Design the sequence.
């Protein structure tokens, strides 16, 4: 009974103090919204998904009729793939031209392209590209697909295997839909974690914990009140992010109850983890450094800004030991795939980690000095 | 049973014996002053009594409990101002008082407490923006919320202006009048003299003097003396014509006569009048607590914690070394 009352009165004082601090508010509420706006803008719209590619057309005809201008037809076909956009250029030195325009990607359509095609003698298109760049694979793939199509047509063949594109979960997912779970995961991590690292080390230094130990509030009650506040803050920032996603980018979001466990247990986990870091370190400076070391890998490798499937295997293995990974995966399972079994496994893993971290934080954190 | 009983208390930090086997008791309703230079071990001692630090050795009983083991229940009965009190940055004194009252689950009139410590004008200022003295007063206000029987005040008036200091003295006096037991540390000897029933002077983790200020002065200081401004001839005349011991300070032209009995002063003055020589101002003086304090803490401490009194020579050479 008393416990709940003390948690509430501490909650009242702490939240009031938090709301009076513009810096905390920025990080808790505004920053995640800015992230949604930035990433939403980057990944939405069509132009950003097509790759501009410089092309030199050295074809020498015949140009008597459009049917005979195979090179132009070929470039048109590339354009209509919607993954790349051809920009034809006139230059005597193509590689120099690419360098001057800071581009590593380019296509040369050789002389006699149309003539050789009509005569069915071999043609060699040159594709410039940097194999380490992510655009290269897309260009090579597109060029070879269009080439295959033209090869087939030359001998009056017809494609046997076709496909239609479909998606899991939503009818018609937007990039922003896939972004939202990761960015929510990010805000679940960052605000509670950084705040608690800071608060716990500063309170220790300023002897505020000693001061509190002179009152009837207990360590556990104090931490519970902080966790409660960060749950409230997470829910608020969640709603704000979703609202911005929907209003600005027309995102589709399923507001199901399945999200709640993640929005509650997530902040609990990271507030406790922040507390733990602040507790086991000697001073606020060390706490800050250790806090960053713990937080940064999670910020980027847990599937927050991009899916972990694009990362090399060893990074994927690292991702699997990061607690945030299971939160982001769980949010994706709930929000995008509707995979309830998967989400239940994720929440189970997160809960176990949370119980351990919370217990360790409460156990190791000292009000007093010995 | 006394409210505070300390026997052979010890606390070490690495090689440093911050508190080196001190013993004392504090009586019910008493203001007990703890004096000593920086690093003497006052805060360490007081925080051990408050149950905020664990001791390494010795016995401590505060209101009958072991402050470290029974801290949680002890804290409901005591009030504390820690040295360099700080609080949540974005919370006002009034909110802080309400918060404490909620935690203790008691009803208080926050405005009355604020008035008691002369803080009503800054009741709504955030802690961040309070002056040093106002912060200190907030600490005092919070220590009063649970109406404690016993208060620990670690340098409650450091950094306060003279008015604010006197205001806090008044609060302390009124608390004493209500029968509360108060342990006070301070660097202001006048404060200790004004407020304390008894004081202990600490140095290097030892108690080097303890008792009422009068007791300490008479034990460790010179007794009362008569001082007469005059020439050396007068000093010699008095010496020749009375039984008294007469010292002369040639630098200040002050004749100094220790008074074993007050009546000795009359004999000395009669002799001075008889001499027909000129003499100036007269006064009786005794060592103040300041004089005794400086003497006590500038001396070295031997293994037993006893002051080894220094002769003038070695004091001088020590000053030169600095
Ligand atoms: N937590 C600690 N760790 C290491 N040394 C400490 C610690 N606390 C105090 N000390 C040392 O113990 C000695 C006594 O410190 P203490 O704070 O008790 O002195 P004090 O009498 O209160 O001094 P002041 O008048 O400056 O407040 C000092 O030398 C101090 O450096
Ligand atoms: Mg101190």
Sequence:
């Amino acid at each position: 009974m008393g416990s709940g009352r003390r948690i509430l009165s501490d909650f009242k004082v702490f939240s009031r103090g938090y709301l009076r601090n513009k810096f905390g508010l920025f990080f808790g509420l505004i920053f995640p919204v800015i992230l949604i706006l930035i990433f939403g803008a980057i990944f939405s719209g069509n132009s950003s998904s097509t790759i501009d590619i410089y092309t030199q057309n050295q074809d020498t005809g015949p140009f008597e009729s459009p049917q005979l201008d195979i090179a132009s037809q070929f470039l048109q076909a590339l354009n209509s793939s919607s993954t790349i956009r051809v920009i034809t250029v006139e230059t005597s030195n193509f590689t120099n031209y690419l360098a001057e325009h800071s581009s590593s990607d380019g296509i040369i359509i050789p002389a006699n392209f149309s003539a050789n095609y009509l005569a069915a003698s071999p043609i060699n298109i040159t594709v410039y590209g940097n194999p380490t760049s992510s655009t290269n694979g897309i260009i090579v793939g597109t060029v070879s697909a269009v080439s295959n199509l033209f090869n087939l047509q030359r001998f009056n063949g017809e494609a046997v295997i076709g496909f239609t594109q479909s998606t899991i979960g939503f009818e018609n997912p937007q990039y922003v839909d896939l972004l939202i779970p990761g960015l929510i995961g990010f805000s679940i991590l960052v605000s509670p974690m950084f705040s608690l690292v800071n608060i716990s080390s500063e309170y220790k230094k300023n002897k505020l914990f000693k001061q509190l130990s002179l009152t009837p509030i207990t360590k556990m009650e104090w931490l519970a009140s902080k966790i409660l506040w960060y749950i409230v803050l997470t829910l608020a920032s969640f709603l704000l992010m979703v609202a911005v996603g929907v209003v600005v980018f027309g995102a589709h979001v399923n507001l199901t109850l399945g999200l709640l466990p993640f929005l509650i247990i997530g902040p609990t986990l990271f507030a406790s983890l922040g507390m733990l870091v602040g507790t086991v370190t000697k001073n606020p400076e060390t706490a800050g450094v250790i806090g960053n070391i713990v937080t940064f890998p999670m910020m980027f490798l847990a599937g927050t800004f991009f899916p972990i499937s694009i990362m090399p295997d060893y990074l994927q293995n690292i991702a699997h030991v990061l607690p945030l990974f299971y939160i982001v995966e769980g949010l994706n399972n709930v929000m995008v795939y509707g995979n309830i079994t998967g989400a239940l496994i994720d929440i189970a893993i997160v809960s176990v980690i949370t119980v351990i971290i919370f217990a360790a934080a409460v156990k190791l954190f000292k009000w007093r000095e010995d | 049973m006394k409210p505070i009983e300390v026997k052979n208390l010890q606390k070490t930090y690495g090689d440093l014996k911050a508190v080196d086997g001190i013993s004392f008791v504090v009586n019910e309703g008493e203001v007990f002053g703890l004096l000593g230079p920086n690093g003497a071990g006052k805060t360490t001692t007081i925080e051990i009594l408050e149950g905020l630090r664990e001791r390494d050795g010795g016995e401590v009983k505060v209101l009958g409990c072991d402050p470290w083991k029974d801290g949680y229940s002890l804290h409901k009965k005591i009030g504390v101002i820690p040295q360099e009190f700080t609080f949540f940055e974005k919370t006002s004194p009034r909110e802080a008082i309400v918060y404490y009252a909620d935690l203790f689950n008691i009803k208080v009139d926050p405005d009355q407490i604020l008035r008691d410590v002369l803080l009503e004008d800054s009741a709504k200022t955030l802690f961040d923006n309070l002056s040093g003295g106002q912060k200190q007063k907030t600490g005092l206000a919070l220590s009063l919320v649970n109406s404690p029987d016993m208060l620990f005040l670690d340098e409650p008036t450091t950094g306060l202006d003279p008015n604010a200091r006197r205001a806090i003295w008044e609060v302390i006096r009124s608390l004493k009048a209500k029968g509360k037991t108060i342990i006070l540390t301070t660097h202001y000897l006048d404060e200790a003299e004004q407020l304390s029933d008894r004081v202990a002077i600490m140095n290097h983790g030892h108690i080097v003097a303890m008792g009422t200020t009068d007791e300490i002065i008479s034990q460790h200081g010179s007794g009362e003396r008569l001082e007469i401004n005059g020439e050396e001839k007068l000093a010699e005349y008095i010496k020749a014509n009375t039984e008294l011991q007469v010292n002369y300070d040639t630098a200040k032209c002050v004749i100094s006569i220790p008074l074993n009995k007050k009546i000795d002063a009359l004999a000395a003055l009669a002799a001075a009048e008889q001499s027909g020589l000129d003499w100036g101002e007269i006064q009786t003086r005794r060592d103040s607590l300041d004089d005794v304090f400086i003497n006590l803490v500038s001396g070295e401490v031997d293994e037993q914690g006893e002051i080894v009194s220094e002769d003038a020579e070695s004091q001088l050479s020590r000053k030169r070394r600095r």
